[in-house]
Amino acid sequence: MNAAQLERQALCDLFTEVGPDAPTLCAGWTTKDLAAHLVVRDRRPDAAAGLVIKKLAGYGDRVRLSAKKRPWEKLITSVRQGPGRLSPIRLSALDRLTNTIEYFVHLEDVRRAVAGWTPRELPAAVKEQLNQSISKGAGLFARKAPCGLILKTSDGQTVVAKKGEPAVTISGDVGEVILFLYGRQAQAKVSLSGPDDLVEMVRNTAFGI
Fold it and tell me: Residues in domain Mycothiol-dependent maleylpyruvate isomerase metal-binding (predicted)?
């Protein structure tokens, strides 16, 4: 399995373990809400567009709520199976590119929504793909930063995500850095360095795609 498939299957295993009513880090969403979102994202591109196009948000929400009415086990099966057979995202390269971060972040959204969690050891394929994503997509992740932003991962990678002086440096394992840049600052185990006022601003920036 590629990196995206590994994270997808791990999330589905966790869904089975915790049930449909478990909390997540996605505001107001239970695990069933999250599973319905993933099914819509995989199988209803018309509705998934509502995630990025405000005018379609209401339509996307209606489709998601309709999907949520399905039995829990069937939702999990649909998430596990992924996009339809004719979807180009079933191609391994596109799957890795578009889904590894999505499923990594949402797996952690479930894991870290309850007390007592600890960072997990990521599969090598997942860590490699996340590092590639940081290298190629840092500018997109950091576009909302209020100042220059430098990313340093524990694997030795340093990326200037946003040019500017003075800058704030975010340091940590690659998964933790990605969680921070996806708006999970409170749960991401990273260290920040730079001018105190800018560090505080970065901590409170509404990051996310």
Answer: 10-46
